[in-house]
Structure formats: C-alpha cells, structure tokens
Write a structure and sequence with these properties.
binds flavin mononucleotide, alpha+beta, 5-stranded antiparallel β-sheet, NADH Oxidase, single chain, 5 strands
C-alpha cells in the first residue's frame, strides 16, 4: 500500500475477527518493527508474541483487556541496555561519566518501534491497538507470566488481528478532533 494511504488508514482498532494471523504476516511485521531508530543503536526493544489461546486469556485478564485479538504483542524496553551502550568507549564522556538523560530515550525508541508495528499491520491488511493505561496494568505479573527478564520493562499490550470494523467502537476521544496543522508545526519559531 502507498505510504500516505497506509498512514491515513491506521486507526487504533479494538474489535477483531476470529481469523488467526498467518505466521508469515506476523514475521514480516516484526521484521519491520525491528527497523526502529535507537539511541546509540542500543536496540533495547524486544517483543513477546502471544498467540496461544490460554496465554492470551491470561494476558487479557492481567491487563483487564476487552480485546479479542488473536495476537498480543508485548513491547518491552531495557533502560539498562542503553546505559551499558553509553558506557562504551565511543559514547562515554571524559571522566568516565555517562551523558545526562534529559529525555528517557528508551521510551522514544519503543514508541518508534510500535509505530512500525501499527503501519506494518495496516500494510498487511491487519490492524493493531495499544492499551497502556496505568493503574490496571500490572507489569510485574506480566513479566513473571511471560518470563520477561528483570531489566526489560513491558510498556503495554498491542492487540493485532484482522479488524472487525462492524463491531469496532472508535474512541470517544476522537470527538476532540485533530488540531490544526498550524498549531502543530511551527516554522522557524513557535
Ligand atoms: C500511549 C497511548 C496509550 C493509549 N491507551 C489506550 C487505552 O488504554 N485504551 C484505548 O482504548 N486506547 C488507548 N490509546 C489509543 C488512543 O485513544 C488513540 O490513539 C487516539 O484516540 C487516536 O485515535 P487513533 O489512534 O485511532 O487515530 C492509547 C494511545 C496511546 C498512544
């Protein structure tokens, strides 16, 4: 699909058809999601792919998800990998000090990767959605259940599958409308 159409067709979809996602499609999506940019090319993002019915049910309950998606992707990010990378000789500052971190780049990187999942899904005729509300999300239990290493943090759950637009209820947040381009992009100065 043409890039502009892909971007414009992307929606957070919360209702899915029962059809499973073919392994080849899943593999292509994950291969593209691996092309995210990362600070120092740290490559600190990893996914747990959950397709098994019983495991999906557990993830659904842990995250209190209503999604009936045939695939859940759990994006995980390791801050430790970035710190380790920034201690390597080409990154470490004189005096052996790590750079200051005004922005936690690892969250930027995992967001970039998730966007590739969203767009690659559309390109495959699928749809995806992110659920990451704080409060009901229990990263500790999810980590134990899925064997996620201690230094990786699960940031939420991505649902993936064939969209069921007949049943999908778009977020009421969309009623807020999109802000004007002139309030979004500020040329030369704000
Ligand atoms: C960080 C983040 C967290 C979100 N959490 C939820 C969520 O918990 N439940 C939900 O239904 N949608 C969630 N959304 C989806 C937003 O509501 C949605 O992206 C927004 O309304 C714009 O709609 P669109 O993505 O379909 O264009 C989340 C989106 C982001 C980026």
């Amino acid at each position: 699909m043409d890039f502009t159409r892909t971007v414009l067709a992307r929606r957070m979809v919360r209702a899915f058809k029962l059809d499973p996602v073919p392994r080849e499609k899943l593999k292509r999506i994950l291969s593209l999601a691996q092309h995210y940019p990362s600070a120092g090319y740290s490559q600190e993002v990893s996914y747990v792919v959950v397709t098994d019915k019983e495991k999906r049910e557990k993830v659904r309950k842990l995250r209190d998800l209503r999604s009936n998606a045939p695939v859940f992707l759990i994006p995980c990010v390791s801050e430790k990998i970035v710190h380790d990378r920034y201690h390597e000789t080409d990154k470490i500052r004189s005096g052996g000090k790590e750079i200051d971190w005004p922005i936690p780049f690892w969250y930027f990187d995992v967001g970039c990767s998730c966007m590739l999942v969203f767009l690659a899904a559309v390109n495959e005729g699928l749809a995806a959605a992110f659920a990451g509300s704080v409060g009901i999300f229990k990263p500790g239990i999810l980590r134990d259940e899925l064997g996620i290493p201690e230094h990786y943090e699960p940031v939420g759950v991505l649902s993936l599958g064939y969209p069921d637009f007949g049943k999908d209820v778009p977020s009421p947040s969309l009623n807020r409308g999109r802000r004007l381009l002139r309030d979004f992009a500020h040329y030369e100065r704000w």
